[in-house]
Amino acid sequence: MAVEIVRSTCPHDCPSACALDVERLAPDRVGRVHGGRWNPYIDGVICAKVARYAERVHNPDRLTTPLLRDGPKGSGRFKRIGWDEALDRVAEAFAAARRRHGPQTLWPYNYAGTMGLVQRDGIQRFRALLGTSLQHDTFCTSLGNAGWAAGMGAHKWGVDPREMVDSDVVVLWGLNAVHTQVQTMGWVARARKARGAKLVVVDPYRNATAEKADLHLMLRPGTDAALACAVMHVLFRDGLADRAYLAASADDPEGLEAHLRDRTPAWAARITGLSVDEIETFARLYGGTRRAYLRIGYGFTRSRNGAAAMHAVTSLPAVSGAWAHRGGGALWSMSGLFPLDTSLITAAEHRDGTQRWLDMSRIGAILTGDEPDALAGGPPVTAMLIQNTNPMVTAPDSTRVARGFAREDLFVCVHDQILTETARMADVVLPATTFLEHDDLYKAGAHTVLQVGLQVIEPLAEARCNHDVLRALMARLEAPAHVANDMSARELVDETLRLSGLPPAREIRDGGGHDCAAGFDAHHFRKGFGHADGRFRFHGAWHGAQAAVMPDLPDHLETIEAVDADHPFRLVTAPARHFLNSSFNETPTSRAMERRPTVLVHPDDAARVGLTDGAPARLGNRRGIVTLRARLIPGLAPGTVVVESLWSAGAFPEGVGINALVGADPGPPNGGAVFHDTAVWLRPVAVGDAEVPAGADAAALELA
Ligand code: SF4
């Protein structure tokens, strides 16, 4: 068979939602994956880990048949069973749990292993129709969403990143684009070539993106709002604020200016660890042009003060007036742009109003019952269906999560592509398709093009897609009739598009996607921000259980996990280049490229605790301890340590991942995981030391 090129879309948890050209070598085999030039933002560029996707699809560790636990929980002992038996067993266990505790004892749990709307969100229909517990999605965007909406309002989109070619300054704030949004760097390069644009990177360590910056602001983690406030102070002080724009477009510029009067660069320098000179330089650079493009990342928002920080950062282009100009303004996510009617997929209107919402980040407390409020007044969770996620590694406070999954009275079904740490804790494991083996529909965070991915190759062995598994279980559990349950995934994609007034899937795919761009005025909010009065709100519109702790006007909140004598370091679990959350940490090439779990330490800090480059080190706090290798780099704010993540739990001698150190308390105002807000201690350790726990896997410590 000649090599065919088939268009598709990357399904991973990454804003780029890359257009792909996939080499189909045979009906069941793919070769290299290339970036599609048919999406002008992607323009042929994708990351290396997806370019070698064949390694993931044809991984010998893929699950091929349903499995039934045949040993103690977590032992990894399973026996093969057929699909009918597997689905019957799951349905019987769910029905028994429901009879005993009511439907909300079932917690269907999912996240972003695929971003396809049909295969990711169909589990919402399962929850709605069966009356199970609902899920508050807090891993990724809830803190950022709250901060964005506080100032910007309901419109979650921004300026097309291709406008960077018209920018004089590009600021990447909390965004390691080289690792996580590779196309951004191409647009920065174009901006530099076209207009000599300057690149500013705001990030706590000198990562691969910061190395390319004209100005790198290496601030302490959790101090971003202080920097933003000081920059706005300078804009007002030095006549760089656009007062006409402010008068026309914001709620209370005079109140903000008065509030910022003592948020000086010297004030921010004490909080951020930056010099006054660095802050002044950045402020003059940012305010010296109206064509300053702010590309906002997720990193700095995953902190107990992350929502406040987002509000402060989004206030910058309102003060400078950059929104009004080509090449100016900001982008955090385009995800609110796409005019899709997803009611068929989610059946959200079938929720009965009494179903409780469980916070996915608090899964440890929910499963162990350690914090009764986490159960929101409902019954214990005694049965789970898990799709597209590996909470044993990705959830915070993961030692507690593991304790929860070890409960003998908890029935767990995991539907996944490989035997993840979570699947090893399951009673029944079901083999899942990859995106190349099923149909779906994709929004994007970084661009404006709606894309589809239609099946490229046959499913591996007995693997089934999420949609088919959900339908089969709902039929067995006698869920109320719903039209989506009578459709194939492909029919559901097409019907969703038809309901949304959009062309059918094949037409979208063959036509290079459907561009949902709304025009210059909309993307620059020239017709108003997303509040009823159309004005940007410096007085933040905060909602949620902890709204009272939020600052009225943009400000630094001291709510981060503070260092103390016993925990003198702040840990950031930044994204590794060759992993994507826990995805790809199973592929040999990605593991080889990342080498081994490593903590980045400033040489002065290393000398203080007696660590040398390459030496085994232990990080810990009251939640847990992990052992990894130290790498000394000067490009860190002293007192900060970074672990690029997410390695599998088995890569650490203790058998837990880095999230064992991260707290699961909900960030204000409305919940959200605080993955980059952790106080830890750091110590040297040698293999054989008494500090290494009994049973530790020394081989993992020696990982080359
Ligand atoms: S992981 Fe991100 S950058 Fe890589 S191909 Fe997928 S969408 Fe593109």
UniProtKB/TrEMBL annotation:
GO MF: iron-sulfur cluster binding; metal ion binding; molybdopterin cofactor binding; oxidoreductase activity
Any Pfam family: Molybdop_Fe4S4
Keyword terms: Iron, Iron-sulfur, Metal-binding, Molybdenum, Oxidoreductase
Reported cofactor(s): Mo-bis(molybdopterin guanine dinucleotide)
Domain of life the protein comes from: Bacteria
Record's keyword annotation contains Iron: yes
Record keyword Cytoplasm present: no
Domain 4Fe-4S Mo/W bis-MGD-type as annotated: residue spans: 3-61
Record-stated family: Belongs to the prokaryotic molybdopterin-containing oxidoreductase family.
Protein name: Anaerobic selenocysteine-containing dehydrogenase
Species in which this protein is naturally found: Roseospira visakhapatnamensis
Taxonomic path: Bacteria, Pseudomonadati, Pseudomonadota, Alphaproteobacteria, Rhodospirillales
